[in-house]
Amino acid sequence: MKTATKKTSTNKNATTGRQAAPQASTNGKQSKAAFTKSQSRNEEDTTAGKEKQETRFEKLLLDLMKDIYWAEEHLVEALPKMAEAATTAELQEAFEDHLHQTQRHVKRLEKAFSLLGKKAESKKCAAMEGLVKEAEEVIKSTDEGSMTRDAGLIISAQKVEHYEIATYGSLVQVALTLGHDELADLFEKTLNEEERTDHRLTVIAESEVNPLADQEDEPEEVYAEMEEEVA
Ligand code: FE
Ligand code: FE
């Protein structure tokens, strides 16, 4: 389909954005080595009977977790609004499914905090606040029931997913380096779900939403033909 091909460039970022994740996957071996080193260091501390002090790198991990905990909770509030504003059933369903996943992401983070013997704590994430504001702007600046709105919402949602992919990719890596294997597993589960959501959004944009948005201002009969073509 010609139109679909023409419009894919907008969402290609989504696919190339996978570069954000390799921290988690490609450096796995290196980090296992670092893990062993760090683990033996911790064991020495325990044997010496010293109270285990939080290192600056451990504090960085905690700060990252507080940031993304705030972000995930913020998304639990934002996703229903995005689903409600969506024009197509496919996009609405994608947002609703991701809302359920996001609620699990919050729970996983709470588990991660408890594995570290910490209470779950959040710290305002300025980036996620800004990205959600952008999505709200898209809703305000596009017509209800239009495909252009869905195209804009998908782009906003993919910016959110990419932020999360970068964060969880880093969290996996940092957790492995610090020897927190169980935490790394939790973060990796979430990372995979964020990547799958990103991919699902790309498919919706490329196969349906973008081609239809491109034809939206064409005369009605041309648009109807286009709708049949992508159906
Ligand atoms: Fe998430
Ligand atoms: Fe997400």
Order of helices and strands: HHHHHHHHHH
Number of helices: 10
The total count of strands amounts to 0
Distance separating the two termini:
12 Å
Helix content class: over 70%
Low-confidence blocks of residues: 1-22, 24-48
Radius of gyration, whole Å? 21 Å
Mean pLDDT: 84
Describe the global form: elongated
Sketch the major β-sheet: none
Hetero compounds: fe (iii) ion
The helix/strand class is: mainly alpha
- Hey, roughly how much beta strand do the residues contain? under 5%
How is this fold's topology laid out?
Layout lengths: L1 H6 L1 H8 L5 H4 L2 H20 L8 H30 L3 H27 L10 H16 L5 H31 L3 H35 L4 H11 L1
Give a structural overview.
The structure is a single chain. This protein has helices at 2-7, 9-16, 22-25, 28-47, 56-85, 89-115, 126-141, 147-177, 181-215, 220-230. Helix 4 (28-47) packs across helix 8 (147-177). The protein is built from 10 helices and no strands. The protein is mainly alpha-helical and 231 residues long. The model is unreliable at 1-22 and 24-48 (pLDDT under 50). The longest helix is centred in the C-terminal third of the chain and has 35 residues, at 181-215. It binds fe (iii) ion (2 copies). The site of one fe (iii) ion (FE) has 6 residues, from helix 6, helix 8 and helix 9.
